[in-house]
Design a protein that fits this description.
- One of its GO terms (biological process) is fatty acid metabolic process.
- One of its GO terms (molecular function) is long-chain fatty acyl-CoA hydrolase activity.
- This is palmitoyl-CoA hydrolase.
- The radius of gyration is 18 Å and the shape is globular.
- Strand 3 (127-134) and strand 4 (139-146) form a beta hairpin.
- The chain has one domain: Thiol Ester Dehydrase, Chain A (Roll).
- The longest helix is centred in the last third of the chain and has 20 residues, at 159-178.
- 27% of the residues lie in helices and 26% in strands.
- The strands form 2 sheets. Strands 1-3-4-6-7-8-5 form a 7-stranded antiparallel sheet, with helices on both faces. Strands 2-9 form a two-stranded antiparallel ribbon.
- The protein has 247 residues and is α+β, with helices and mostly antiparallel strands.
- It is built from 6 helices and 9 strands; from the N terminus they run ααααβαβββαβββββ.
- The two termini are 29 Å apart.
């Protein structure tokens, strides 16, 4: 996928006749990519009315720590500028009305496509998580509770499940903070094992945006911050989305 992204980016740059120093894509204009303004992007990602199921809502499997911290951040949405992100079963649902650049769009006859972190439908058995985003500070907090279907060492979460959640939180943050769409790199340093069914708090920040790349960092820790589970960094590529033509 990454190689394909670079190939498409190179073709786009070639067709637009770039004669300056090599760049991945021409400078992105958020207004043209997401409608009249970045507000349009938020309205697409956070629809006020939808029949889609939001999987980032409390259910009976959530541990007490996850429930109480969820309530704390929900209060912050009322006064501190935080936004609770909905989580639909597919990223297609999050970018309705927009299409990928030519060469990246694919057609599929599969009617039930799901994002990897929402592929386990039984509550509490897989990825239980919710992401809160702070637009002005370009940062996110993800509350993640790994279920028993994500086990690696007996009683503990597989490292790949944490990597997947970091990538998912990075991607949603990158998309809303700077139109980032594709992971170019993801580096993780694991520190401690995560007990299955426990709460992991992931603090994600956008460190900088330059040359159409978003550079991001994440610390995954326990609620009391006494245990660090992992630290990671990621780089995301900005790609211009286009308005879909009306049918």
């Amino acid at each position: 996928m990454i190689r394909r992204c670079f190939q498409v980016a190179a073709r786009l740059g070639h067709h637009r006749g770039l004669l300056e120093a090599p760049r991945i894509l021409p400078r992105l204009n958020p207004a043209s990519a997401f409608g009249s303004s970045t507000d349009s992007m938020f309205s697409r990602f956070l629809p006020e009315k939808t029949d889609l199921k939001d999987y980032a809502l409390p259910n009976a499997s959530w541990c007490s720590d996850m429930l109480s911290l969820y309530q704390e951040f929900l209060e912050k949405t009322k006064s501190s500028g935080w936004i609770k992100l909905p989580s639909f079963k597919s990223n297609r649902d999050h970018i309705q009305g927009l299409k990928l650049p030519s060469g990246l769009a694919v057609s599929s006859d599969k009617g039930d496509c799901r994002i990897f972190t929402r592929c386990i439908q039984v509550e509490g058995q897989g990825f239980e998580y919710v992401i809160f985003f702070q637009p002005s500070q370009k940062k996110s907090v993800c509350l993640f509770q790994p279920g028993p279907y994500l086990e690696g060492p007996p009683g503990f979460a597989h490292g790949g499940s944490l990597a997947a959640m970091m990538d998912e939180t990075f991607s949603k943050t990158a998309f809303l903070a700077g139109e980032g769409l594709f992971t170019l790199s993801l580096n993780i340093r694991f520190k401690n094992l995560i007990p299955v069914g426990s709460l992991v708090v992931m603090d994600v920040e956008v460190d900088k945006i330059e040359d159409q790349k978003l550079y991001m960092s994440c610390i995954a820790h326990s609620r009391d911050q006494q245990t660090v589970y992992a630290k990671s960094s990621g780089v995301f590529l900005q790609l211009q989305l286009e308005e879909e033509s009306p049918q």
